[in-house]
Amino acid sequence: MNLEAVKSIYFFEMARTRRTLLQSVVSPVISTSLYFIVFGAAIGTRIEQIDGVSYGAFITPGLIMLTLLTQCIGNGSFGIYFPKFTGTIYEILSSPVSMTEIVLGYVGAAATKGVMIGTIILGTAALFVDLHIAHPLVMILFFVLTAITFSLFGFIIGIWAKDFEQLNLIPMLVIPPLVFLGGSFYSIDMLPPFWQAVSHFNPVLYLISGFRWSFFEIADVNPAVSFSIIVVFLAVLMGLLTWIFRTGYRLRN
Known about the structure:
The protein is mainly alpha-helical. The chain has eleven helices and two strands, in the order ααββααααααααα. Helix 2 (21-43) runs parallel beside helix 6 and helix 7 packs antiparallel against helix 10. The longest helix has 30 residues, at 99-128. The two termini are 27 Å apart.
Protein backbone atom coordinates (compact mmCIF):
# COMPACT_ATOMS: atom_id res chain seq x y z
CA MET A 1 0.00 0.00 0.00
CA ASN A 2 1.20 3.49 -0.91
CA LEU A 3 1.01 5.13 2.51
CA GLU A 4 2.54 8.36 1.24
CA ALA A 5 -0.40 8.78 -1.16
CA VAL A 6 -2.89 8.12 1.65
CA LYS A 7 -1.13 10.65 3.90
CA SER A 8 -1.01 13.26 1.14
CA ILE A 9 -4.74 13.05 0.43
CA TYR A 10 -5.60 12.83 4.13
CA PHE A 11 -3.57 15.84 5.27
CA PHE A 12 -4.64 17.90 2.27
CA GLU A 13 -8.29 17.36 3.24
CA MET A 14 -7.60 18.03 6.92
CA ALA A 15 -5.87 21.29 5.96
CA ARG A 16 -9.11 22.42 4.31
CA THR A 17 -10.80 22.25 7.71
CA ARG A 18 -8.23 24.64 9.17
CA ARG A 19 -8.82 27.05 6.30
CA THR A 20 -12.60 27.01 6.87
CA LEU A 21 -12.61 26.79 10.67
CA LEU A 22 -15.62 29.11 11.06
CA GLN A 23 -17.80 27.08 8.74
CA SER A 24 -16.48 23.64 9.69
CA VAL A 25 -16.42 23.89 13.48
CA VAL A 26 -17.95 27.08 14.87
CA SER A 27 -21.16 26.93 12.83
CA PRO A 28 -22.30 23.43 13.92
CA VAL A 29 -21.44 24.19 17.56
CA ILE A 30 -23.57 27.36 17.53
CA SER A 31 -26.43 25.55 15.77
CA THR A 32 -26.40 22.71 18.31
CA SER A 33 -26.25 25.16 21.21
CA LEU A 34 -29.39 26.83 19.85
CA TYR A 35 -31.12 23.45 19.72
CA PHE A 36 -30.30 22.90 23.39
CA ILE A 37 -31.53 26.38 24.31
CA VAL A 38 -34.80 26.04 22.39
CA PHE A 39 -35.62 22.36 22.92
CA GLY A 40 -33.73 21.62 26.11
CA ALA A 41 -34.52 24.79 28.06
CA ALA A 42 -37.83 25.97 26.61
CA ILE A 43 -39.59 22.71 25.76
CA GLY A 44 -37.67 20.71 28.35
CA THR A 45 -39.34 22.66 31.15
CA ARG A 46 -42.71 21.33 29.93
CA ILE A 47 -41.54 17.76 29.26
CA GLU A 48 -39.78 16.68 32.41
CA GLN A 49 -38.64 13.15 31.53
CA ILE A 50 -38.83 10.47 28.84
CA ASP A 51 -38.23 6.89 30.03
CA GLY A 52 -36.73 8.25 33.23
CA VAL A 53 -34.26 10.55 31.46
CA SER A 54 -34.46 14.35 31.51
CA TYR A 55 -35.62 15.73 28.18
CA GLY A 56 -32.47 17.78 27.63
CA ALA A 57 -30.27 14.70 28.10
CA PHE A 58 -32.65 12.53 26.05
CA ILE A 59 -32.26 14.64 22.90
CA THR A 60 -28.46 14.81 23.15
CA PRO A 61 -27.71 11.60 21.16
CA GLY A 62 -30.11 12.71 18.41
CA LEU A 63 -28.48 16.13 18.12
CA ILE A 64 -25.00 14.58 18.00
CA MET A 65 -26.17 12.19 15.27
CA LEU A 66 -27.70 15.07 13.30
CA THR A 67 -24.38 16.93 13.32
CA LEU A 68 -22.32 13.79 12.70
CA LEU A 69 -24.36 12.66 9.68
CA THR A 70 -24.52 16.06 8.00
CA GLN A 71 -20.84 16.79 8.58
CA CYS A 72 -19.59 13.38 7.44
CA ILE A 73 -21.74 13.35 4.32
CA GLY A 74 -20.90 16.97 3.51
CA ASN A 75 -17.14 16.55 3.98
CA GLY A 76 -17.04 13.19 2.23
CA SER A 77 -18.98 14.41 -0.79
CA PHE A 78 -17.19 17.75 -1.23
CA GLY A 79 -13.76 16.16 -0.87
CA ILE A 80 -14.13 14.07 -4.04
CA TYR A 81 -16.54 16.38 -5.90
CA PHE A 82 -14.19 19.37 -5.93
CA PRO A 83 -11.42 17.52 -7.84
CA LYS A 84 -14.10 16.46 -10.34
CA PHE A 85 -15.27 20.07 -10.61
CA THR A 86 -11.78 21.45 -11.19
CA GLY A 87 -10.60 18.54 -13.35
CA THR A 88 -7.78 17.49 -11.03
CA ILE A 89 -9.48 14.13 -10.49
CA TYR A 90 -7.66 12.90 -13.62
CA GLU A 91 -4.32 13.49 -11.93
CA ILE A 92 -5.41 11.19 -9.10
CA LEU A 93 -6.84 8.53 -11.42
CA SER A 94 -3.72 8.50 -13.60
CA SER A 95 -1.31 8.32 -10.66
CA PRO A 96 -0.10 4.99 -9.17
CA VAL A 97 -2.73 5.14 -6.42
CA SER A 98 -5.24 2.34 -5.89
CA MET A 99 -8.95 2.64 -5.10
CA THR A 100 -8.26 1.58 -1.51
CA GLU A 101 -5.70 4.34 -1.01
CA ILE A 102 -7.97 7.02 -2.49
CA VAL A 103 -10.87 5.94 -0.29
CA LEU A 104 -8.69 5.75 2.83
CA GLY A 105 -7.43 9.28 2.23
CA TYR A 106 -10.72 11.00 1.49
CA VAL A 107 -13.06 8.96 3.69
CA GLY A 108 -10.54 8.84 6.54
CA ALA A 109 -10.28 12.63 6.55
CA ALA A 110 -14.07 13.11 6.39
CA ALA A 111 -14.61 10.62 9.22
CA THR A 112 -11.91 12.28 11.33
CA LYS A 113 -13.56 15.68 10.89
CA GLY A 114 -16.94 14.20 11.81
CA VAL A 115 -15.57 12.56 14.96
CA MET A 116 -13.79 15.77 15.98
CA ILE A 117 -16.90 17.92 15.55
CA GLY A 118 -19.11 15.28 17.18
CA THR A 119 -16.78 15.21 20.17
CA ILE A 120 -16.96 19.00 20.42
CA ILE A 121 -20.76 18.78 20.28
CA LEU A 122 -20.70 16.17 23.06
CA GLY A 123 -18.59 18.52 25.17
CA THR A 124 -20.97 21.38 24.37
CA ALA A 125 -23.93 19.26 25.44
CA ALA A 126 -22.29 18.63 28.81
CA LEU A 127 -22.50 22.39 29.44
CA PHE A 128 -26.30 22.29 29.13
CA VAL A 129 -27.32 18.89 30.55
CA ASP A 130 -26.03 16.31 33.03
CA LEU A 131 -24.72 13.45 30.87
CA HIS A 132 -23.84 9.94 32.01
CA ILE A 133 -22.53 7.45 29.45
CA ALA A 134 -23.48 3.94 30.59
CA HIS A 135 -21.41 2.13 27.94
CA PRO A 136 -18.56 4.36 26.72
CA LEU A 137 -16.95 1.67 24.54
CA VAL A 138 -20.24 0.96 22.78
CA MET A 139 -20.78 4.69 22.35
CA ILE A 140 -17.34 5.08 20.73
CA LEU A 141 -18.01 2.07 18.49
CA PHE A 142 -21.33 3.47 17.24
CA PHE A 143 -19.76 6.92 16.93
CA VAL A 144 -16.76 5.88 14.84
CA LEU A 145 -18.60 3.29 12.75
CA THR A 146 -21.34 5.78 11.89
CA ALA A 147 -18.74 8.42 10.96
CA ILE A 148 -16.91 6.01 8.63
CA THR A 149 -20.13 4.70 7.05
CA PHE A 150 -21.64 8.08 6.28
CA SER A 151 -18.34 9.57 5.15
CA LEU A 152 -18.24 6.72 2.64
CA PHE A 153 -21.86 7.49 1.73
CA GLY A 154 -20.91 11.13 1.18
CA PHE A 155 -17.94 10.05 -0.95
CA ILE A 156 -20.32 8.14 -3.24
CA ILE A 157 -22.66 11.14 -3.39
CA GLY A 158 -19.72 13.31 -4.44
CA ILE A 159 -18.97 10.92 -7.29
CA TRP A 160 -22.64 10.76 -8.32
CA ALA A 161 -23.34 14.52 -8.17
CA LYS A 162 -23.17 16.46 -11.42
CA ASP A 163 -23.50 19.91 -9.84
CA PHE A 164 -23.62 21.65 -6.47
CA GLU A 165 -27.40 21.29 -6.29
CA GLN A 166 -27.16 17.50 -6.39
CA LEU A 167 -24.20 17.63 -4.02
CA ASN A 168 -26.28 19.36 -1.33
CA LEU A 169 -29.53 17.52 -2.02
CA ILE A 170 -29.14 14.61 0.41
CA PRO A 171 -27.19 16.25 3.29
CA MET A 172 -29.43 19.33 3.31
CA LEU A 173 -32.89 18.06 2.29
CA VAL A 174 -32.94 14.35 3.14
CA ILE A 175 -30.82 13.71 6.23
CA PRO A 176 -32.29 16.40 8.59
CA PRO A 177 -35.93 15.23 8.12
CA LEU A 178 -34.87 11.61 8.63
CA VAL A 179 -33.07 12.56 11.85
CA PHE A 180 -36.00 14.63 13.14
CA LEU A 181 -38.44 11.80 12.33
CA GLY A 182 -36.06 9.14 13.65
CA GLY A 183 -36.79 9.63 17.33
CA SER A 184 -34.18 12.29 18.00
CA PHE A 185 -36.60 14.47 20.02
CA TYR A 186 -39.03 11.80 21.21
CA SER A 187 -39.45 8.08 21.76
CA ILE A 188 -41.41 6.34 19.01
CA ASP A 189 -43.40 4.63 21.79
CA MET A 190 -45.16 8.00 22.10
CA LEU A 191 -46.53 7.63 18.55
CA PRO A 192 -49.72 5.84 17.47
CA PRO A 193 -49.17 2.19 16.38
CA PHE A 194 -49.37 3.02 12.66
CA TRP A 195 -46.66 5.69 12.85
CA GLN A 196 -44.51 3.45 15.03
CA ALA A 197 -44.57 0.89 12.21
CA VAL A 198 -43.74 3.58 9.64
CA SER A 199 -40.84 4.83 11.75
CA HIS A 200 -39.15 1.42 11.54
CA PHE A 201 -38.58 2.05 7.83
CA ASN A 202 -36.44 5.07 8.72
CA PRO A 203 -32.80 3.85 8.79
CA VAL A 204 -31.70 6.78 10.97
CA LEU A 205 -33.98 5.51 13.76
CA TYR A 206 -31.63 2.56 14.28
CA LEU A 207 -28.57 4.80 14.49
CA ILE A 208 -30.09 7.14 17.06
CA SER A 209 -31.62 4.28 19.05
CA GLY A 210 -28.35 2.37 19.33
CA PHE A 211 -26.40 5.50 20.14
CA ARG A 212 -28.92 6.52 22.82
CA TRP A 213 -28.75 3.06 24.38
CA SER A 214 -25.01 3.51 24.92
CA PHE A 215 -25.82 6.59 27.03
CA PHE A 216 -28.94 5.66 28.99
CA GLU A 217 -29.62 1.95 28.30
CA ILE A 218 -32.95 2.86 26.71
CA ALA A 219 -33.71 2.22 23.06
CA ASP A 220 -36.57 2.06 20.60
CA VAL A 221 -34.82 -0.81 18.79
CA ASN A 222 -32.60 -3.63 20.01
CA PRO A 223 -28.98 -2.31 19.99
CA ALA A 224 -27.80 -5.49 18.23
CA VAL A 225 -30.22 -4.75 15.39
CA SER A 226 -28.96 -1.16 15.21
CA PHE A 227 -25.37 -2.36 14.98
CA SER A 228 -26.30 -4.91 12.30
CA ILE A 229 -28.01 -2.21 10.21
CA ILE A 230 -24.86 -0.06 10.22
CA VAL A 231 -22.64 -3.01 9.25
CA VAL A 232 -24.96 -4.05 6.41
CA PHE A 233 -25.16 -0.48 5.11
CA LEU A 234 -21.36 -0.22 5.21
CA ALA A 235 -21.00 -3.47 3.29
CA VAL A 236 -23.48 -2.29 0.63
CA LEU A 237 -21.59 0.99 0.22
CA MET A 238 -18.28 -0.85 -0.15
CA GLY A 239 -19.79 -3.05 -2.85
CA LEU A 240 -21.22 -0.03 -4.66
CA LEU A 241 -17.91 1.83 -4.46
CA THR A 242 -16.04 -1.17 -5.87
CA TRP A 243 -18.41 -1.19 -8.85
CA ILE A 244 -17.95 2.57 -9.37
CA PHE A 245 -14.16 2.30 -9.56
CA ARG A 246 -14.28 -0.75 -11.79
CA THR A 247 -16.63 0.90 -14.29
CA GLY A 248 -15.38 4.49 -13.91
CA TYR A 249 -18.96 5.66 -13.33
CA ARG A 250 -18.95 9.49 -13.44
CA LEU A 251 -15.21 9.52 -12.84
CA ARG A 252 -13.85 9.20 -16.36
CA ASN A 253 -16.54 11.19 -18.17
